[in-house]
Amino acid sequence: xxxxxxxxxxxxxxxxxxxxxxxxxxxxxxxxxxxxxxxxxxxxxxxxxxxxxxxxxxxxxxxxxxxxxxxxxxxxxxxxxxxxxxxxxxxxxxxxxxxxxxxxxxxxxxxxxxxxxxxxxxxxxxxxxxxxxxxxxxxxxxxxxxxxxxxxxxxxxxxxxxxxxxxxxxxxxxxxxxxxxxxxxxxxxxxxxxxxxxxxxxxxxxxxxxxxxxxxxxxxxxxxxxxxxxxxxxxxxxx
Length: 239
Prior knowledge:
There is one protein chain. By secondary structure, the chain is an alpha+beta fold. It has helices at 4-17, 25-55, 66-75, 127-134, 207-222, 225-237; strands at residues 78-82, 84-88, 95-98, 105-113, 120-121, 123-124, 147-150, 156-159, 167-173, 182-184, 190-192. The protein has 6 helices and 11 strands. The chain has a 5-stranded mixed beta sheet, with no helix packed on it. Strands 1-9-4-5 form a 4-stranded antiparallel beta sheet, with no helix packed on it.
C-alpha cells in the first residue's frame, strides 16, 4: 500500500518548488486514479514480457526474477467468490450466472463447479464451440466436464443447464479508487483527513512511478511542459 498523502505532498512540493501552479484536491484525486490504473494495466504486459525473456533464457533468477516480482503485484488483486444463478437460457442448453452487482472484476482466471463428487474446472469456450460440442453425445458438456462462455452484460453461460448452483470463480479485480480527503480550515486551505481517505492499493515499490505519472498529468493540465517532460523521462527510465 502507498500512502496517498505522502504522494500528494511529494507532488505538491515539486510543483511549488518551481512555481508551476496549484493542484486542487479534486484534480489530484482524478490524476491519482488515472495514474494507478496506468500502472495496474501495465502489470499484465510486463508479466508477459518477462515470461518471454525467461523462455528465451535471457532473464535473471532469485532477486533478479522480474516475472516473479510482477506476479506478486498481480496476486494482490486476486480474489474469488460464488456466481449467482439467474435462469436457464432460452436459446440453448445453458444456465446463466452473474456476479454480485458490487464485484468489479478485471480478468477471469478460473471457474470451478463444486456440486459434484469432486471439484472440477469449468473449461472456457465460445458459445459456438459449446453449441457444436452439444450436438454430439460424446463431446457435449456434462457436470463432470462442464464448460462456460461469456455472455452479455458480464454474464456467464454455463453448460449443461442442469448446473444451477455451486459455481465458484477466481478472478483479478480492479484496484479501489484512491481518494485524498480533507476538511477545510477557516482560511480555506484543505487539511488532510486520514479517517475518510483511501490509499493507493499497489505496492510501495510503485510510489515513485505514481508521483511521475501524476506529475505528467498535472503538467498537461497546468500547461507546464517542463513538468510533463521531466516526469515522462523519469517514468520511462523506470519501465
